[in-house]
Amino acid sequence: MERIQAVLVGAEGVMETGGIINKIGTVNVCVIAKSRHVPVYVCAETIKFVREFPLNQADIPKEFLYRTSVIEKNNLELEHPDVDYTAPEFLTLIITDVGAMKPEAVGEELIKMYI
Would you identify the CATH topology of the domain 7-114? Predict the structure, then answer.
């Protein structure tokens, strides 16, 4: 991490909190980056903005956690999640099709989208 100047990640979903749902392991990379004072940038289209309010890993909606085939079989306890939740305090900026914004601005952007 000493030589890394920035971390760039995508997102399966951008939550109303400003946090992101992305492939498992993203939160680990972001936590390490923050501890080394390396900025983390998220690239995601506004169509991925979701009106969900998870506070931690346990609050992730099951539609994000598991493949549809697993949900249909109702075998959730036998499967491992495909994604994790990265809280907004680990993110520096979210780069979207409408411009760049701080994670805390996602809620305002969602209001604009739904009005």
Answer: Rossmann fold (3.40.50)
